[in-house]
Write a structure and sequence with these properties.
1 helix; Ig-like_fold; Immunoglobulin-like; six-stranded mixed β-sheet; 3 domains; 256 residues; 22 strands; Ig-like domain (Group 3); TAT_signal
């Protein structure tokens, strides 16, 4: 058989045995051709080999989905009067994000199918029982094609508040994307349900709304916003009760 035919067959990746006039031609899947002639009493069998190239199609996996847990932040300390706000940022270069799931201590505590991805885990949830130190991560699920990915795990604290009249920040540390916003809830463990006065110190690119939260509710949800291009900025939000005898709370904010 001509050598050019050997090359053609090696590219197709076939395996063939052709027998005729005492000769055999074998093409392995790896593209090696060996032609063996009839044995000679004096010299033994004659062999000619050709190494071809595999030209079959190769399939490569599509890019994996990505997800980052943005709250709670690593090292956050929460108190048991606070719901735990869990938020995440997810993306997929191909496919469609079906949902983002949230886990505490490897237990599924909720999911969200719409941006911005986030849930509130209420105080007393079974996943929070038995310890004051917990781990959390986010898990993204995509379809068409199906893919999944986990975020990096974070560790946070969760325990009872100290025996004092005080405002409590839930959480005490938060990340906000540049050009975006998130929320911090301040809970008043004071007599009655006072209003709050909010101040911001540090990076001027970080702001809060409202600056004054009216009385009548123990929980005050505050929106924290960061200006575009402010990545790396840091600020502190202080919440003071509008009545005396209640210690203020401070939440640290980092722009990611």
């Amino acid at each position: 058989m001509p050598l050019s035919s050997h090359r053609d067959e090696s590219r197709r990746g076939w395996r063939r045995a052709a027998v005729g006039a005492g000769a055999a031609l074998i093409l392995a899947a790896g593209g090696a051709i060996a032609a063996t002639g009839p044995a000679n009493a004096a010299t033994g069998p004659a062999t000619v080999s050709h190494i071809g190239t595999w030209a079959g199609e190769r399939q490569t996996p599509g890019p994996a989905a990505k997800v980052s847990l943005t709250s709670p932040a690593e090292g956050t300390v929460l108190v048991s009067v606070c719901a735990i706000r869990m938020t995440a940022v997810a993306q997929a270069q191909i496919g469609t994000i079906d949902r983002v799931e949230f886990y505490i201590n490897d237990q599924l505590v909720g999911s969200d199918a719409h941006e911005p991805y986030g849930i509130d885990v209420p105080p007393g949830h079974p996943a929070l029982q038995g310890s004051t130190r917990h781990t959390a991560f986010a898990h993204v699920v995509t379809v068409s094609p199906a893919a999944t990915a986990d975020s990096t795990s974070v560790t946070f604290g969760y325990g009872p508040p100290p025996p004092a009249l005080m405002v409590i920040a839930c959480p005490s540390r938060v990340e906000v994307p540049a050009g975006g916003s998130t929320t911090v809830t301040f809970v008043t463990a004071c007599g009655g349900a006072p209003g709050l006065l909010l101040t911001v110190s540090g990076g001027p690119e970080i702001s809060v709304t409202p600056r004054v939260s009216p009385p009548g509710n123990r929980e005050h949800r505050i929106t924290v916003s960061a200006a575009p291009g402010s990545t790396g900025s840091v600020a502190w939000i202080t919440a003071n009760a509008d009545t005396g005898g209640c210690m203020p709370a401070t939440a640290a904010v980092t722009v990611s």
